Amino acid sequence: MFNNITHWNLPNFLTHTQHAEFLIIAKNLIEDHWTPYLTSSGRPDGFSYYDLKTTFAGKNVYLLKMNPGDSIDWHTDSKKRVTALTYPLSEQYAPCEFKNGEKTSKPAFLNTTHEHAVFNNAQTRYSLNISFTEDMDNSIAIFERLGEKYEFKAS
To answer: What is the mean pLDDT of residues 7-35?
Structure first.
């Protein structure tokens, strides 16, 4: 049903306090704590991540950071990551763009089997990111089963 769409926007489910706390963590991490993401060919790919050692819906939660002017060129993700939950934390958040022209800069599930890219603006871009091996249909179902219980747990 949803597997052919590029993304599915989610509600702003973080509380104001959670949002502020995650953003404070991201902004206060020293550069050495961020791990540059490497493509399958081993080259850096425009963003870095930090493992929060936290889970959401049984999945690991990461902070992502893109420096001003960086980009992640057109690509699809590996088979280990079919769907990604992304949650913007920073202001003036550059959108995730899809080859078909669709874009989102909201909390969303991204169908990473569709070509997508991010071309960052002049601001540091911070987000929460959660990878799902499940397809869009099943990822949305997992989220909907949570009801209003959007809990983050120490892993």
So the answer is: 96
